[in-house]
Write a structure and sequence with these properties.
CATH superfamily: HUPs
Strand order of the largest sheet: 9-13-8-1-6-7-15
Structural class: alpha/beta
Distance between the termini: 55 Å
Strand content: 25-35%
CATH architecture: 3-Layer(aba) Sandwich
CATH class: Alpha Beta
Helix content: 10-25%
Largest sheet: 7 strands, parallel
Number of helices: 6
Number of domains: 1
Number of strands: 15
Amino acid sequence: MKILVTVKRIPDPDVHLKFANSELDMSGVKWVQNAFDEYAVETALRLAENKGGGGKLAEVIVLSICPKDQRQHVTQFLAMGADRGIVVDADDTELDTLSVSKIIAAVAKDEAVDLCILGKLSQDNEGNQVGQRVAALLGQPQACFAAEIEWDQAGNRLTVTREVDDGAETKRVPLPTVITVDLRIVLPQSVRNGSTPADFAYNEGPRLASLRGITMAKRKKVKVLNPSDLGVVSGANEKRCGVEQPPSRPSGQMVASVEELVEKLSGEAKVL
């Protein structure tokens, strides 16, 4: 099996960005890996590994749309264990969701992948559109917000469980397909590939790159493409109209009794 995983660099969400003229001041920002992309890569690696012995079950390819000289995050994902990388040389901040989706779909077709795995969203804009658009462009089934995945190798399909408001929903999707993953996918036994023993438990969360992995990452192949190589014309049909800070919240109040609290909640706050 061949697995394509999309990865993205984002401004560090733990750093408070400054505002300037209704825009975010990105000067001096620290770029980090999108957390949900880390979950997606970890999912792919667990599907590809045979902890019961034997060779790998799948090739894992990471794809990023970014300036070709700003691809440190790609190296980090290769150090986690991905086999090779593809960089589409473009400023992703100037591309709309449809253009990004077309690029991913074009790479998936060119590589003839069996499975596309994406994080459910990017932390910088929380758009939650790309996975669904990619599936539509490829004409493939989709299973979004995956919390568990089981690979039926004989049936050439995946069983995907996701959390919904009133419990859990399970879907079976044939390969090739598109999956987006949620944070519970990196629990110790959330990914089962049919070869790794069923009782094997991973450490919770995405793995850290080892020293050997970092060394090997520098030797792994990274192909650089342009959107035009994929027949994609950059579009800008989505525009950010402005950015502003949320209104400041009033300070809290101390109450002397439960009765006073109920009165304030019902009379002043109007929430009861």
